[in-house]
Amino acid sequence: MTRIIEKLNNDWSFQLGDGNIQAKKVHLPHTVDLTPAISSGGVNYQGTCTYYKEMMMSEVLQDKKVILEFDGAMGVSKLFVNGQLAREHYCGYTPLVQDVTELLKWGVMNEIRVELDNSDNEDVPPGKPQHALDFTYDGGLYREARMHIVDPLHITHALLAEEVAGGGIFVSYKEVTKESAIVHIKTHVKNEYREAKTFTLTQQIVDAQQVCVGTSTQEVTLQGGEAQHFECDIQVDRPQLWSPETPYLYQVITQLNEAGKVYDEVTTTIGIRTFQFTYDQGILFNEEPRRLSGANYHASHVYIGNALPESVLRRDALKLRQAGFKNIRSHYPFAPGFVQACNEYGLTLIVSAPGWQWFKEGIFAERAKENVKDMVRWQRNNPAIIIWEPMLNESYMSESFKVDLHNIVHAEYPYNDCYTASDNGPTDILYKEFDENMLDPEGEEYVQGDVEHAPVWVREYNDRPDDWDNQSCAWRVPRGWGEEGMLRAVDRALGLDPQSRRQNYINMVNDNKICGYGIWPGIEHNRGYQVTPCWGGTLDLYRVPKFTYYFFQSQQDIKEAGVVLFIANYWSEISSDDVTVYSNAERVRLYHNDELVEEIGADDLAVKHPPFTFKNIRTRCKQRERSIIKVEALVGGEVVATQVRKSPGVQRSLQLEADFMDIPLRADGSDLVMVYCKVVDDVGNVVPMTADKYPIRFSVEGEGEIVGDDSIGANPICPEGGIAAVFVRATTTAGTIKVKAQMHWKQNAPSGVKPAELVFESVVK
Q1: Residues 724, 676: contact at Cβ < 8 Å?
Q2: C-beta atoms surrounding 361 within 10 Å
Q3: Strand 756-761 vs strand 736-743: parallel, antiparallel, or unpaired?
Q4: Staple 622 to which of 73, 472, 618, 654, CB 3.0 to 4.6 Å?
Q5: Residues of the chain above pLDDT 90, percent
């Protein structure tokens, strides 16, 4: 019997606090306590909690090895098996993994218990207390969990083997061209039988159509109790190279077998590519120079904190990629589901060690080093990863500590395509314009010119609040502030706002001395040290796009993203006098009530696709009566896209739509989909402002439930910019889900806003 991997996400018993609260049945990913949509300022729970479940371990398996793996257990975690402590773990962002074979009982029920504490702890990275932190320590088993059942002769787990640059399977590349590539595979095998084992180690590389494109076979003998690395090179002819535009994936299938008996088999997703960071040509990605536009991102959401199921993480990744971003960064390693989505969608990643404006010698520093080691071993095979950030974000650290972190990464990843980056450390890539004085009054301001010929990356740009205390700025604009605020946010991104003369998008795209740049943030998020969320970003807390989303989307070429055309004007009585259009077309025509007003080229701005600004259109065309504006995008003189905007009227009805993005809702008890409710007028236009004070109540029938209720302001809820949203969670039974939306207050039948219904299906997990 080969390796068995069983998900451990379902049917946990959960207790909050010291155990006096009655346990309830939950499914992973799970957050310890639902919070309001705006939960900044320490609203979330911090303290202890316990998860436990019983599992029958068949006597048939008693000669096997059992490994438990939790992708995310927030804070300090303790794993118990049948009452005995199996492992303690001191990071909420790297996996809790343990071989528990010796603690199990066969043929009877076994109890697995995980005790967690997400309280502030200055000895556990990131270390900084939440009330002073720019994100939140949301608690719980907030990522997925699984059980590996393996033969005593098996491929080891990279986080348990304790092998530098080894353990498990490690795939690297050399001599990569469009004609051929050498895939180097390093496999760590352990024989826990008493006697020697002779077996065949087979490596196969298969393409997306499951066609084998390369094979290696080795005859191996391992003595009892011995573990050894085995390495091979496999040539792939005419490889499909992975890049942000062509994220082609292969699989490496590794098998241990003897005379038809398969001891172990592991499948590893890879992408064949080569890249080199330079100080004057950007990134030479598959030998082609480029500079990457990116975004920073916190994996958190309304109500559920950071307990995002894989489908929600995938939708976030896809939305960011569709906005035109090609790199994502945060302050900690992401969940495997998000990383795999980035592999598939062509989003490169900066993987950062957990840290934020905090450093302490001693046990904290040692745990930070362990985190760096673990994150490389955990995620090293993902083609999306191009930079490792081992330094603690914006933290004043000793020079020896920074050197140690940099060296750990290169020791764990001793190949050419390994790059570290930091604000001011001894790393391969330097972040631009970091000022040490913000952390250490005695420090000297960091000057990029201190290191000659170093590649440069701008980790965060465009977010420069007034005094870093009150944090008011034109970039941090909620969608509900309407057109003028969102237009100002685009102006700020372009450097047209007085606050953003230094770091803005125009500066980024025209700086030939940087390899890439990430806007802060890509999506709004809650944080600990402010009672207001970070309102910056291109998507709001519910993932509804702002005007900035469409601007960045328009910076992609048509051959890559298709035609982008968006009217940044509601055409209401209080809309801007100018009509701004974001498009990647060559020219745009504007019509009013089907009469041509004018055709113009893009504004004179130094970006690839500047906005199109039609001046004084409201003054020239808008009368008291409702009217229609239409824009046409032109390429080569031909119309390639059209968009229409009609003056919004009074709210008449509700419309529901589920944000699936072609990713189905799994019936696993934890999967979620956001359902949007639009308040529309008589012709289906969203009524963006006048309906925002009218709460909407949602209900669900069938195999689903609404996440949250009126105790946290989740249901009923008022629209923002004419759109309200709720999370719908699937049950563990696949079937029909009917969502209903109606105005919370009683409606007069003739003039009331008509309710809406939406029916969809959950699928077998």
Answers
A1: yes
A2: 10
A3: antiparallel
A4: 618
A5: 87
Tens-place pLDDT, residues 132-162: 999 999 999 999 999 999 999 999 999 999 9
Q: How far apart are CA 65 and CA 202, in angstroms?
A: 22
Taking the chain, what is the end-to-end CA distance rounded to the nearest angstrom? Answer: 24
DSSP 334: P
What phi and psi, each to the nearest 5 degrees, are found at residue 407?
-70, -35
9, 27 Cβ separation under 8 angstroms: yes
What's the chain's Rg over C-alpha atoms? 27
Following DSSP, what letter does each residue of 134-184 receive, concatenated? SS----SS-S-EEEEEE-SEEEPPTTTS--TT-SSEEEEEES--SSEEEEE
Q: List Cα–Cα distances, 103 to 50, 55, 86, 499, in angstroms.
A: 19, 13, 8, 60
User: Which residues, 6 or more positions from 283, have their beta carbon under 8 angstroms from its beta carbon?
Assistant: 275, 276, 277, 289, 290, 291, 292, 386, 515, 516
- Give the pLDDT mean for 543-556: 98
Q: What is the mean pLDDT of residues 68-75?
A: 97
What's the pTM value of the predicted model, to 2 decimals? Answer: 0.96
Residue 409, both tokens: 């990464």
How many Å apart are CA 119 and CA 137, to the nearest integer? Answer: 8
Task: Select from 623, 614, 609 the least CA-distant residue to 591.
Answer: 614
Q: Which residue has the higher pLDDT, 297 or 475?
A: 297
- Structure tokens belonging to residue 751: 């003039």
Residue 539 in contact with residue 524, Cβ under 8 Å?
Answer: yes
Q: Are strands 180-191 and 169-174 parallel, antiparallel or unpaired?
A: antiparallel
Give the CA angle between residues 420, 426, 428 to the nearest 5°.
35
Map tokens 């826990």 to a residue.
Answer: 192
Q: What is residue 712's DSSP assignment? A: G
SS3 at position 484: helix
